[in-house]
Specification:
The protein has 356 residues and is of the alpha+beta class. The protein has 2 domains: 105 residues, Phosphorylase Kinase, domain 1; 236 residues, Aminoglycoside phosphotransferase (APH), C-terminal lobe (Aminoglycoside 3'-phosphotransferase, Chain: A, domain 2). The strands form 3 sheets. A 5-stranded antiparallel sheet has the order 1-2-3-5-4, with helices on both faces. Strands 6-8-9 form a 3-stranded antiparallel sheet, with helices on one face. Strands 7-10 form a two-stranded antiparallel ribbon. α3 packs antiparallel against α8 and α3 runs parallel beside α9. Bound molecules: adenosine-5'-diphosphate (ADP), 2-acetamido-2-deoxy-1-O-phosphono-alpha-D-glucopyranose (GN1) and magnesium ion (MG). Magnesium ion binds next to loops. The site of magnesium ion has 4 residues, from loops.
């Protein structure tokens, strides 16, 4: 999309400002994000085009986010806000039917791709834990599911089976090892599925995409500022949020490191993130939730790996990719991390329990 058009859209949220630049920003896999600068002040803005191939009902995404942010504002949490157009709508629909929205840019903040300090793992996880705490008095019935069955591992496997059948021989051969790995791990979903179906795991409003670069830390002090990327906020399990933090915080290399032998689960980072998350949720999580946290980590590492692998076999229709094997590389790293978790499961469980 040409830059002039992006500026025109930005100006609908900022009618009296002179926009001097709109630059592509951030490293998300889904939306198109732009950093907007204006002439009048140093204040900056984040303009995003919601990916409509992925979010089929962007109006539901907008509804959920408005509900959540209004709720936070009532609790005096004003870090993040959305902007409205002159007709009081928190979005713009362009000539292609694409939804755009604008947030304030959070100054002096940083988001990481890899944890470099244990303190950052503690702070980032604490921010996600705080978000969970702030959501406790929201009613799950007020929220839509912007992506139905988003974390349904059984349905993800059914999709994988179908895609595998139709996939190109070359890609199937390249991914031979990874295909065998996921076929071996199907059972990981059983316990969480049973406990969800029997009502033993409570459904709460959860973030569902708690990857490390979806939380902003203070660039100087490292303290958590707030959680961002709210598109998948919806009813879910805390296990999903805990699990995706383990997936994205604990490896010493980025999600798309080309040498998967460098991937392993750093126990001290795992410990710091568990401590940070649980510090906000004392007396909140049920015994079953606490007991299942480690299974949540297995479940999330597997499901995201499976989604990367499925996307590879489907010729990269979902995640943004920069080269041919990008999704396969990502999948391989998830499976290396999961294999390491499985080797150390008992010790990791003990670490979590030490924080109850
Ligand atoms: P995606 O859904 O594509 O992952 P995100 O909403 O996560 O998009 O935004 C992409 C990146 O832009 C984030 O990882 C973060 O670095 C940056 N970002 C997003 N919103 C803000 C904000 N309000 N203030 C500062 N940085 C932001
Ligand atoms: C996507 O939007 P982003 O980059 O924060 C994806 C997550 C995956 C993640 C893998 C809506 O997250 O589910 O876990 O990539 N978001 C969506 O890095 O599919
Ligand atoms: Mg993101």
């Amino acid at each position: 999309m040409d830059n002039k058009r992006v500026i025109e859209i930005a100006s609908l949220f900022l009618p009296n400002k002179y926009i001097i630049s709109a630059k592509s920003y951030g490293g998300g896999h889904i939306n198109d994000t732009f950093l907007i600068e204006i002439a009048e002040s140093d204040k900056k803005f984040i303009l995003q085009k919601i990916n409509k191939n992925i979010f089929k009902t962007p109006e539901h995404v907008v509804h959920n986010i408005e509900l959540y942010l209004n709720h936070l504002h009532q609790k005096n949490e004003f870090q993040l806000k959305t902007f409205k157009t002159s007709d009081e709508k928190p979005y713009v629909i362009d000539e292609n039917g694409d939804f755009w929205r604008m947030y304030n840019y959070i100054e002096n903040s940083i988001s990481y791709f890899v944890i470099e300090k244990e303190e950052h793992a503690f702070q980032a996880a604490k921010a996600f834990g705080k978000m969970q705490r702030l959501c406790l008095d929201l009613n799950t019935n007020d929220f839509f599911d912007p992506i139905p069955d988003f974390h349904d591992l059984n349905k993800r496997y059914l999709k994988f089976d179908k895609v595998l059948e139709l996939s190109k021989k070359e890609r199937r051969q390249n991914a031979e090892k990874e295909i065998l790995f996921v076929q071996d791990q199907r059972k990981i979903s059983d316990l969480i599925t049973d406990l969800t179906n029997s009502g033993e795991l409570p459904i709460r409003i959860t973030h569902n995409d708690t990857k490390l670069n979806n939380v902003l830390l203070n660039a100087e002090t490292g303290e958590g500022i707030c959680v961002i990327d709210l598109d998948t906020l919806m009813p879910g399990l805390v296990l999903y949020d805990f699990g995706d933090m383990v997936r994205t915080f604990t490896s010493p290399v980025p999600e798309d490191e080309k040498d998967s032998s460098k991937v392993f689960l750093r126990k001290e980072v795992f410990s710091a993130l568990s401590r940070g998350y649980l510090s906000e949720l004392t007396n909140v999580l049920t015994k079953t939730e606490k007991d299942q946290l480690i299974n949540g980590a297995k479940y999330m590492i597997l499901i995201i790996g499976l989604r990367f692998l499925t996307d590879y076999l489907e010729n990269d229709v979902y995640f943004k990719t920069a080269y041919d094997d990008h999704n396969l590389v990502r999948a391989r790293n998830q499976f290396a991390l999961l294999a390491d978790l499985l080797k150390n499961e008992k010790e990791l469980k003990n670490i979590i329990e030490s924080y109850f």
